[in-house]
C-alpha cells in the first residue's frame, strides 16, 4: 500500500457534516412524504428523499427515517407506511412535512390507503402502500424495508426533485 494512504481506522470521522451534505446534495433525488397512522388513528408524516426500490419480486422498497421521530414510532406501532411521491408544485408540502410543526396534516388533503390505512396525499405523482418487513439501525437513521401491497400512479403529473438545497421540476426529454 502506498504511503499516501492511511489505515482504514484513521479514515473514519474525517468528513464533516457540511461536506457530506454537499456531496450527497449533488445527486438529485425525488421528494416523498412518508406517512403512517398511530393506534389512535392520528396521521403522522415526514419529508423523505432517501427512498429507493430494493426488489421487484417480492416488491420491496426502502425508506430512511431519522431517529427519533413520531412518524417512525407510528410505523413501528402500526407496521404500515405510505410513500407519497410529490408532484411538481408541492414544494410547500415538502417544507411543511420537513418542519417541526406538530400539525403537519392541517390543510393537507389526504385519504386513508385502501389496504393499509396509511395517509395518502392527494395530487401526488404516485403513492405506495407498504407493510413493514424489517428495520435496520444505520447511524442516526433507521432503514425501513416495506413490501408494496398497493400503489397508484398519475401519468398526468411530473415529479418534484431536490438538488443542491433547492426544489426543482423534472421534465422528460424525448429520445433523440
Give the helix/strand layout:
Blueprint: H1 8-11, H2 17-24, E1 29-30, E2 32-37, E3 43-48, E4 51-56, E5 59-66, H3 70-78, E6 80-85, H4 91-98, E7 110-112, E8 119-121, E9 126-138, E10 141-153, E11 160-163, E12 166-169
Antiparallel strand pairs: 1-11, 2-3, 2-6, 4-5, 5-10, 6-9, 7-8, 9-10, 11-12
Care to give the gist of this entry?
This protein is of the alpha+beta class and 176 residues long. Helix content is 16%, strand content 42%.
Mean pLDDT figure: 91
Order of helices and strands: HHEEEEEHEHEEEEEE
Enumerate how many helices there are, as a single number.
4
Cα-to-Cα separation, first versus last residue: 46 Å
Would you give an account of this structure?
By secondary structure, the chain is α+β, with helices and mostly antiparallel strands. It has four helices and twelve strands. The strands form three sheets. The chain has a seven-stranded antiparallel sheet with strand order 3-2-6-9-10-5-4. A three-stranded antiparallel sheet has the order 1-11-12, with no helix packed on it. A two-stranded antiparallel sheet has the order 7-8. Strand 11 and strand 12 form a beta hairpin. The protein is globular. The model has no long low-confidence stretch (mean pLDDT 91).
Amino acid at each position: 500500500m502506498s504511503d499516501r494512504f492511511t489505515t482504514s481506522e484513521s479514515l473514519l470521522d474525517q468528513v464533516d457534516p457540511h461536506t457530506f451534505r454537499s456531496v450527497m446534495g449533488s445527486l438529485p433525488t425525488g421528494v416523498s412524504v412518508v406517512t403512517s397512522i398511530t393506534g389512535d388513528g392520528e396521521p403522522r408524516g415526514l419529508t423523505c428523499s432517501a427512498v429507493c426500490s430494493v426488489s421487484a419480486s417480492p416488491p420491496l422498497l426502502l425508506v430512511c427515517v431519522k431517529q427519533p421521530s413520531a412518524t417512525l414510532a407510528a410505523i413501528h406501532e402500526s407496521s404500515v407506511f405510505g410513500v407519497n411521491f410529490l408532484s411538481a408544485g408541492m414544494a410547500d408540502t415538502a417544507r411543511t412535512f420537513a418542519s417541526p410543526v406538530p400539525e403537519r396534516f392541517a390543510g393537507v388533503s389526504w385519504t386513508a390507503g385502501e389496504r393499509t390505512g396509511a395517509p395518502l396525499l392527494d395530487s401526488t405523482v404516485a403513492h405506495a402502500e407498504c407493510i413493514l418487513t424489517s428495520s435496520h439501525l444505520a447511524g442516526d437513521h433507521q432503514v425501513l424495508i416495506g413490501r408494496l401491497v398497493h400503489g397508484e400512479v398519475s401519468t398526468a403529473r411530473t415529479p418534484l426533485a431536490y438538488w443542491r438545497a433547492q426544489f426543482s421540476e423534472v421534465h422528460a426529454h424525448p429520445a433523440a
